[in-house]
Design brief:
homodimer, alpha/beta, Molybdenum Cofactor Biosythetic Enzyme, Chain A
């Protein structure tokens, strides 16, 4: 088990232009690796806002802090400036970063040179898909990974560099889960059934998602997860099936 | 112009099970109404986490704070407990809330009664789609609207109650925007073109989104927005088209 936070950077996420699927993907990956994603913050492309959000995330002392977005060549890509400002560091030309960028492009220009300037003491991470390197920096005991906002580049660096790092240094785990679809029991009657099951099996988390009414019957999706105990997930599922049927509900095949 | 923050509540958003499309929809709506969404926070279904995030959002003194999720009948719907804890208020049976719920269901039970207990001093908001009423509470000068996490219910209460409230009390505005698709100019060469245009037309914000390489040519989506000046958006678009063409790029019809 380890703890994680995610910081997403980009105006497009706060004007309704882009949906933050990076957070979905990252929190799925981190959870499956045994991580507990405690909080996620989304801020605009502003150095002060990025710095304030970094301070908030670091206060929680997560093992891993993933920052996505704002690593590109344009003037509104300010993530590394935000990190440097927050930590009182300068941005310095990093020769490894420069070589990674040179290997991807024919010629250098101001924007590409900008991407080679990373906070002093940080390490560039190879980007196999695009040009902007990721950045790994240790802040106190927090391992901060800054990744591009372009989903394919973010995923590639996460898989090649971040997961590899985590496997070396963190007590990784697994995620055990099960889904069930209940028909005929309204959410307010499902509540005590779930509550009782969670008290009996404290290592399993049960989340209910009401999906509206289907042919006059309330439809609820149940999601069972445990990061510690696969047997308890199966046990809870059996208990829930039995209770839902006894309350007059139906389990849809799934 | 007014300012806004969004707080999303739900474990499902932090384990990768659900993508936060509510934030996309809300920030689109708020931006189109003339709002500036400064930051968005996502937390788990925990009273302390909700309270901490509320404190952070309130510190920014937004005109509007939208909270979505955690209003249902189950034990892990803790948004109102989080608000009450944060503000030192008790949850009190609200007769209007109870009547709104009674109008939607045949019988009361513990879960439904829970939804009728809202922070003292707050107002319930009618939910035309589902059962859980929304809640409006004034915290200092911040108007906090707690809405359900089910998208159809959240949207309905936002349109019927929140927008109506904002029209009465806030200086609403409009959003002027334009999109362009550029082919043949890499992002690092686009950067100075955008930078120059934004310096010349400070009321227009230009955001570039690299979309990879198409038939050997870099493809970039440009999004122009202004909350104040529709003419400047058209002027900037003309300037960008001219500069991109002079730099050897092509504007794809759009």
């Amino acid at each position: 088990m380890f703890t994680a936070e995610v910081l997403s950077i980009g105006n497009e996420l706060l004007i309704g232009q882009t949906t933050n699927t990076n957070l979905t993907w990252l929190s799925d990956q981190l959870t499956r690796l045994g991580g507990f994603v405690r909080r996620a913050i989304t801020v605009r492309d502003e150095i002060i806002e990025i710095s304030e959000a970094l301070t908030l995330a670091i206060q929680h002392h997560p093992n891993i802090l993933i920052v996505s977005g704002g690593l590109g060549p344009t003037f509104d890509d300010k993530t590394l400036q935000g990190i440097a400002y927050n930590q009182g560091l300068c941005l310095r030309l990093n020769n490894r970063a420069l070589n990674l960028i040179r290997a991807k492009v024919k010629e250098l220009n101001a924007g590409r040179l900008k991407m080679a300037h990373i906070p002093e003491g940080s390490q560039p991470l190879r980007n196999l898909v695009g040009t902007a390197p990721g950045v790994h920096i240790i802040v106190g005991k927090v391992h901060l990974f800054a990744l591009p906002g372009v989903p394919s580049e973010m995923r590639s660096i996460f898989k090649h560099s971040v997961i590899r790092f985590m496997r070396r240094t963190l007590p990784l785990g697994s995620l055990y889960e099960a889904y069930m679809l209940s028909l005929g029991i309204p959410e307010s009657k499902m509540a005590p059934i779930i509550y009782e099951a969670m008290n009996r099996f404290p290592e399993v988390y049960i989340k209910s998602h009401p999906l509206g009414i289907e042919e006059g019957r309330p439809k609820i999706n149940l999601h069972l997860t445990s990061q510690t105990n696969s047997k308890q997930v199966r046990d809870v599922k059996a208990v829930l099936i039995s209770k839902i049927r006894r309350s007059g509900g139906v389990i849809a095949a799934r």
